[in-house]
């Protein structure tokens, strides 16, 4: 009797463990509810994507302004010096717009670049001459390409009129900077990320020649 009872308890324990494992495997990981939370403002809801845009543009300026200043003393090419100056001045204007929008919409902004950007700054700060010119053009061009996709996506879908206006300004700045960097003749386009593969086009229905059935 006792052995039978122990066997039943053992089997029951096995079922409990199996059920627990199944729950862990099937149930999705817990998601922070604040990640997708939106905040209502007079200009419309501010979503996580809207906040992320302001943060990323702020961080872009925090490393590109010093990088532009480095070009003044470290670049050999006069064109790189000029492009660095223009990008630095533009980012001062864009940073002011970012801070203004963030304050109005209640979005907290970082005070330092992200770790990748800090590494790029350190790399440029240690270089001079042709090596600086090449890395300056390519690091900044690649970074602008990444932030451009973020700005464009938010501009296309935001429900907030202030963010829409800000994103439009951001697109104009980023497009200008990509063009300026490419004007140095140093950007290696083969090293840039390829555009995403488009989704397969839906099949086209064959047209019916009604004349055959007339």
TrEMBL record:
Transmembrane segments: 9-27
Signal peptide: none
Domain named DUF4142: residues: 49-178
Gene3D superfamilies: 1.20.1260.10
Family annotation (InterPro entries): DUF4142, Ferritin-like
Keywords, alphabetical: Membrane, Transmembrane, Transmembrane helix
Region (Disordered): 191-214
UniProt xrefs under Pfam families: DUF4142
Pro residues bias locations: 193-203
Domain of life, source organism: Bacteria
PANTHER family: BLR2558 PROTEIN
Protein name: DUF4142 domain-containing protein
High-level lineage: Bacteria, Bacillati, Actinomycetota, Actinomycetes, Streptosporangiales
